[in-house]
Amino acid sequence: MPQQNQTPDANKQVVQKFVEECWNQGNLNKASELLADQVRFHDPVFPNLNAGIQNIKTHIEGCRRAFPDLTLPSTGSKVRRSPNRTQTGTSQR
Question: What is the pTM of this model?
Fold first, then answer.
């Protein structure tokens, strides 16, 4: 599990590594070292996705199986960390 309360740059590196390793390369073993045990995926498209690393792994596997050429951007101009999540984005708000 990653350290809590990291700097914004450290959080950005974790998010970039998670996206690249888990989503883009399908290396789901990395999830355990990059995510908190009770990680939650907040997405209105998947409102019933339960907390936990295994549920995230299963979700990623299903998405990669359905869309085998799916590639997510692993770099962004911003990383946002709230008490429950960290995310990347390029919004200029």
Answer: 0.73
